[in-house]
Amino acid sequence: MGNLYPIYLNLEGQLCLVVGGGKVAERKIGSLLECGARVRLVSPQVTDQIKKWADLGQIELLQREYRPSDLTGSFLVFATTDNAEVNCQVARDCGERHLPVNVADNPTHCSFFVPSVIRRGKLSIAISTGGSSPKLAAKIRRQLESQFGPEYAEFLDLLSDVRRQVLADVEDIGQRQAIFYSLVESDILDLLKNKKYDQVKERLKNAYSGYRS
Predict the structure, then answer these.
(1) Is the pLDDT of residue 213 over 60?
(2) Sign of the C-alpha dihedral, residues 62, 67, 70, 76?
């Protein structure tokens, strides 16, 4: 296998099929719902959490065995059953239809892999070992979680707000870049971490007020 091409997908409103109703499927569904995907799940048995999602109308549940027709309209497919034959059949059906498929615990049948992800608001950091060792990816994620704390979510929200103001108020592209650079290289992250919000406001004000047209 060659190098994988990293990509972030917009799943808002996209139909994703999950075949299997155990804990692995539950984790996949949770991540998909966080991204705004529509989820169809096919499995004779499901966990209590999956049943709850279905009862609340958050997912479409087909409580029966998998059928190839279940793939209709799917954007992504996840095979998560504990039956290798069923998972392989899902992978074959997806291959015939040119549908991206992820097969739990079988990298050879995957056309895409789900990375281990750190989320801090709008910041997401994905770690992948190309299916070679999910445990190592999880270990690296835990290491990075301590490095990138919740202050990064606050910082990105601030940067987003300031960016809109700068684009509206500052015409010169060079000045805009100087402002953005000064913010990113400032001590705002440390101030946020220590909840020194008055000083944060002062830094933001000083960063671009002199450039406003």
Answers:
(1) no
(2) positive
